[in-house]
Amino acid sequence: MSKDKKAKQASAPHGSGSVVAEAAPDGQGRSYASELARLQVELAHLQSWVKKSGARIVIIFEGRDAAGKGGVIKRLTERVSPRVFRVVALPAPNDREKTQIYMQRYVQHLPAGGEVVIFDRSWYNRPGVERVMGFCSEEKARRFLELTPRFEAAMIESGITLLKYFLDVSEEEQERRFRQRVKDPLRQWKLSPMDIESYNRWWEYSRAYDEMISATDTRHAPWWIVPSNDKKRARINCIAHILSQIPYEHVPFDIPKFGKRQKRPSDFTEDPAPRNIVPDILG
C-alpha cells in the first residue's frame, strides 16, 4: 500500500472496511469552480434520468460536527430541482414521535419513483449522538446496530439505491472551524450546544462511530469515508463518487416549441393605480 493511501485510511474512523474516496488530482488544469460546474451538469443529467426511469435513490450524509456535510449537500442540490432532490434534516423527535418505532419517522421520508432523498443525518443518529449523549439506552443502540443491516437490505431489495457517506475531519481542523464560527456572525448560528458537546467528547464519538461503521458497513450498503479537512476537495470527490455509483444515462432534452406570443390586445390599458416599488439601493 502506498504512503498516500495509508495516510488517507488513517484519517478514516477505525474499523471501516470501506474504500476511501480518492482525492481529486492536482496539477491538471482543473480548478474547483470548473470541476464543480462540470459535475453539476452531470447532476442535471442524473436528475433527468431519475425522473424518466422512476429511480429511487437515498443518499445518507453522516460525520463529525463541522466536517462539511452541509457544504457538500448545498453544492449537490443548488442546480437541481428540490422536487426531485429532496433534503431531509429532521429535528429532535417530538413527544408523539418518541412513542413510535424508531425507524418510523425516517421511513415516511423514503423516496417515491423519480426522487432522490438526501438525509442530512439519518437513522444513524441512534448509534451516534443519541448513544453518546445518553438519549437512548446502550441496549437500544446495540439493537439498532444489529437490525439496521437487515433494514437496509430490505430497502435495496425493494429497488432503492442506497449510498452512505461519512465525512471525517481531524481534531485540529474541527477546532479551527468551531473557533471560526465564534468570530463570524454569518457562521455563529451553526455553533450549537451539541457542537460544544461533540468537541468535548471527541473520543466518545470516535468509539461510537468506529463501532457504528464496523457493524453496518455491509457489502450491499457500504460506508464511503470522505476525508474533509479540505472542504472543496471533499465536495468534488463526494459528488463525483455519487455519480459513479449510479448507472444513469443522458436523456435527450425535448426542445419545446414556443409558438407565437399573443399580440397586445387593442383594448388593453395599464392599471393607473400606484404600485409599491422596492427601492434600488445600488443607485
End-to-end Cα distance, whole Å, is 61 Å
Report strand order across the widest sheet: 2-3-1-4-5
Estimate percent helicity.
40-55%
SS field, number of helical segments: 11
Structural class: alpha/beta
| Estimated share of beta-strand residues | 5-15%
Order of helices and strands: HHEHEHHEHHEHHHEH
**Main beta sheet, described?**
5 strands, parallel
Task: Describe the overall structure.
- The chain is globular, with a radius of gyration of 23 Å.
- Strands 2-3-1-4-5 form a five-stranded parallel beta sheet, sandwiched between helices.
- Mean pLDDT is 91; it is low at 1-29.
- Helices cover 44% and strands 11% of the residues.
- Helix 6 packs antiparallel against helix 10.
- It starts with a helix and ends in a 39-residue tail after the last helix.
- It is α/β, with parallel strands linked by helices and 283 residues long.
Tag the structure with descriptive keywords.
283 residues, 11% strand, 11 helices, disordered N terminus, alpha/beta, five-stranded parallel beta sheet
Would you kindly provide a brief summary of this structure?
The protein is α/β, with parallel strands linked by helices and 283 residues long. Helix content is 44%, strand content 11%.
Write the layout of secondary structure elements.
Layout: H1 3-10, H2 32-53, E1 56-63, H3 69-77, E2 85-88, H4 95-98, H5 104-107, E3 115-120, H6 126-132, H7 138-157, E4 160-168, H8 171-183, H9 193-200, H10 202-216, E5 223-227, H11 231-244
Parallel strand pairs: 1-3, 1-4, 2-3, 4-5
Helix pairs in contact: 2-11, 3-11, 6-7, 6-10
